Amino acid sequence: MIERTDHTGYIRAVTEHTAEQDVRIEHVRTGTTDGLRWARLELHPEDTPRLQLHQDHIAILWDEERGWGWATVTGGRTGEILRQGQKLTPAPETVAEWIYAAMHIPHGAREDELLRGRTDEAPELEKFLADFS
User: Fold this and answer.
1) Domain-located, residue 80
2) Residue pair 13/92 in contact by the 8 Å Cβ criterion
3) Nearest Cα to Cα of residue 10 among 35, 33, 37
4) How many helices (H) and strands (E) would you count in the chain?
5) 53 CB contacts (<8 Å, ≥6 apart)?
6) Dist CA 108 CA 111 (whole Å)
């Protein structure tokens, strides 16, 4: 069995690159639930021109099965998640550029299919995450 690597270093690198894009993140949460590593980044409302009047903020989401996505949050409820790309762990600067573009430029998203199963052995994922530890 392959040892599972903490993903918080990767998420921290994404938040640092996102700050360089002048997009503020108000809250960052990371965790593991039922063996699934995940992260939730809540963006500062003033940096998200896509928000509609009734929406509270936008959450950027990552998990090790579906990769990156974003959704609006209204009244504490997360809306439909729009997924980014076909890669589970793009480079942090690529994610930051996508976050900026997602907030400013209308574009399509991919279907919400799994990119991998949380119990699948993925030594390349573990190595990638370890590079940020």
Assistant:
1) yes
2) yes
3) 37
4) 3, 6
5) none
6) 10
The pTM of the whole model exceeds 0.85? no
Whether the predicted pLDDT of 109 surpasses 70: no
Question: What CATH number does the domain containing 33 carry?
Answer: 3.30.310
More confident position, 49 or 130: 130
In angstroms, the CA 11 to CA 4 distance is 15
Tell me the CB-side half-sphere exposure of residue 18, using CA atoms within 13 A. 27
Q: Is residue 127 part of a domain?
A: no
Tokens of 53: 């009047």
Provide the residue range defining the domain that includes 24. Answer: 8-111
Does 13 fall in a domain? yes
